Structures are given as structure tokens and as C-alpha cells.
Amino acid sequence: MQLIDIAVNLTHPSLAAQAEALLERAYAAGICQLVLTGTSLNESEASLTLCRQLDDSGQRLFSTAGVHPHEASTWSNASGNALKALLGQPEVRAVGECGLDFDRDFSPRPLQEKALEEQLALAVELQMPVFLHEREASQRLLEILRDYRDRLPAAVVHCFTGERRALYAYLDLDLHIGITGWVCDERRGTHLHPLLRDIPDERLMLETDAPFLLPRNLRPKPKSGRNEPAFLGEVLREVALHRGQPEDSLAAQTTRNARAFFGIPAILDEPPPES
Asked: Taking residues 198-218, what's their average pLDDT?
């Protein structure tokens, strides 16, 4: 059984220091390929560097490049050209993480919207999929996306945690949906359980968003308290349970979806050679 983790913050200090060991654990757990998340220009470049340093085969590690809404205040006239150069690298498979976050508002909302729209325009120009972040901003995100969706090849709402109305609106725009360990959280994630059956098979992908969102039902829990790609199987089990779907069937479907979305090659079901 193969799984693809579509969101790993491997440049986060808590993961970067042990990146090689973390990847070994992931591969041993059946996580055969990973997409490293870019959240700023610097972090996007760092994710690209890790792909090159840690995957000689060029078959297992890929990345996104973009500016997260938390970082939108750093967007400048030069950002578009810098991002376009990163997006031209073969390891980079999507524009993002970009979007809107009206929950924390770390950047002013007008700047979030400006950075998002310019990144969507780049995605249209380069015909690349988009990796989206949204918190408490589904209505405004939908308004903006409607102006671009017909010209975008694909887009995924990463780490979906919203309500039924938002899910249906995203699906109406033919978006993919990424599910994380949030679904394993009995305090705040149970509203997702009945919605999981409503996500079409071909629109669902799985992710850890490591080191964040450690599945609360994971046993034993890691002493570090941090999430990592090796724990993606816990998300798989929870999603399969509430979809009433065999785990191996769900794994195969979400892996096909991720490969099609990011243009990731199929690989043999065997561990990578030791470097």
C-alpha cells in the first residue's frame, strides 16, 4: 500500500534537523512520496533545496512555492518574478501555500487578497495547480476563485476544516479537498465525519501538515508531541472509517489523485536506496 503526504512543512526547525531520519520513518510506513510546503519565498526556496538534497532519484520529494496569507505583508512588486523563477524548477509542482486567513489576520486582509490574486494569476499563466489555505474566509476566497477557476488546471483546499456549506461550494468549483489529522480530533473535528462521504472519490487527498496537527487518537504518542509523515496512516484509518471504505481502496484512490494533481510519477513499491 502506497500513500502520498501532500503537505509536509519539512523546513520547520523541529523537522529540518532530523529530516533524513524522518523520511526513513515515512518510507518505512508506506509514505512513498511527499510534497514539501512553501509558505514564503525563503521557505519555498528552502523546500526546493531539501528536495534536491534528500532525493537523488527525483522521484520521491516534490514541493510547492508560494506566499502564505500570514506572510502576505511581505509581498512586493519583486515577489512575482522571484516566485515565477521558483515555479519554473522541475521539483516545484504547485503554486502555494496561498490563500486567505481571516482567523488570525497576521497580515492585513487587503494585502492577503492582493498576494493571493497575483499568485492565482501566476498559476493561470504557468498552468500550474494551486495549493490553498483558508481559515474563516471561505466566502471571500470563493468570490476571488470564481474569477480564476475556469483558467486554472486544478486547486486543492488544503487542511479543510470547514462546514458543509463551504465544502459544497468548493466542490461546486471542482476543487480538491485535503484532509489532515484534524479529523482525528474529538474536540473540534467531529463535524467533518459525516462530510467525508460527500467528497467525491476523485477529489480527496490526505496530508499530515507536519509538524502540526498530530492525530489525537495516535497511540503511542511521540514524546516530541510533533506530527510527522509516518503518521499519515492514522488519518487514512479515520477517513476510511467514516467513509465506510476499505483502507487499501482509499489509499490507492488518494494516491492516484495526488499523482494526477501534482504530476507525480508512479514508483515501485519498494524503499528508496540508502544514500
From this structure: 97
